[in-house]
Each structure stands twice: as C-alpha cells, then as structure tokens.
From TrEMBL:
It comes from the Bacteria. This is Secreted protein.
Amino acid sequence: MPRRWTSWIVASIAMFALTAARYPTELDRPVLAGVASFSFSDRRRPVQLESAFESKFITKCSFYAIRIGGQDIAPEPASVVRSALVERFADKLAGRSVELADFVVHLNTAAGYRAMQGRLVTGYLADKLNDQDKTGCADDDTLGSYRMSEIGSRKAPIIVVINLRIDGRPFHARAIAAYEATGSGQGLVMPPGKKARDDERALWNRTVSAVVAQALARLGDAIDTGLFGAPAAPAPAQPAVLTPTPVESPAGF
C-alpha cells in the first residue's frame, strides 16, 4: 500500500478514535476567593462543557477544530472569568449584572490534516483542501476558526474566545497562538490526553494558560474602554508564538 494512503488511514482512525477523548487542562491561574460586588451568571451552552471535534467531516468549515470542554479545564472557566473581573475592576462593577455567554478553547489542526488529504488529489479539490488563507467558518467565531496569517505558519493554533454581557451590553475578546508541539509521526498535533508524558502536558497547560491570560487581558481592555472610557493597552504587533519557555500572564489581569 502506498505510504500516502497509509498516512491517510492512520489519521482517519485517529480522528474517529479520539472523538470522545478527554483533554485535562490545568490553567496557571489562581481563583480569588471572596464576594464579588456584581452579580455573575454562567450562560454558556452545555456543548461548551464537553471536549469534542466541532466536525469530523472534511467538507465542513469547522472540520478538525478540537474543542476543549469546560469540564476538562481547571480551574473551572466561569470561576476564572469571575475572578479576573474581581481582580481587575474590584468595586468598579458594583451593582452590575455580568453574564458569561461563551468561553471556548480550541486547538485547530485542520491545516495539517487538509494538507495530508490534499496530497492525495490534484486540481480544484487539492486547492480547496490546502487553502492558505482561512481555516474555519469565519475570521472570528466560537468554532475555532482563524486565518493562517495570524500565526505565520501551518502550525496548529490554540484559540480562546470569551463573550460576556454586562447589564446586557456585549463584550468580546479573542486570542490565538501557535502550539509548538511536535505532533505524531504523521505530522498531526493533538491535545495531550490523560496518558500523555509530563513534558507534553506541561507545554500544553503553559500554552493554553498564556492564551487564556491574553484573552482575559483583552476582555478587560474592552470593558475598560466600553464602560469607563479608559484607553486599551497597546496590542502586540504580531501574535505571540509560544515556546516551552514559561510565559507569565499579562500585567493587569
């Protein structure tokens, strides 16, 4: 059997075998104890609590975007957001109503898998499978979509999106960074499972923690600007590409 078909079969089996996998993720972020000066409610959809592929079919725009469910993340995402708001704003949100609509973490591995599939065909279909621009359904959504230009490579990115409402007013934040894992022998990258090596899990936790911290910082800037008229902190010129070196949370959140 040709090697390219062997690669395709191995990748396909891996995809379906890992559909119901769990990806334990530990955020390097303590949750502050105490009573908030605002009311806080978790309005996330139940699907966001479960780890799963957004789609297993290559014809779907959300193909091979792997959602890390809230039940696999510690501390629990709603408590992380609530704590971050308390830490940054203290009593500035006193009396307000805060609703968490979305907290989604994705590892989008579609580019590598589509490239593998694209080597098996030619012409128009190969061009579509190897789209060098958009990977996903939109530029910014809750399905793990992104543009390859955001990370400057074909590496699989980790994408975090947070949406909440304060007194009914929406606020949104998104952060993305390349996940610097080496991948399998077929070049595919997956989140580390329960039996992964300690160094693999440490890199995963460190990278997700840094992207979550960046998303929270941007969320805080959006709230500062939207509610209090404070200027947002200058954004970095290029998206961060994270390495195994520990990354500290941005100052102020």
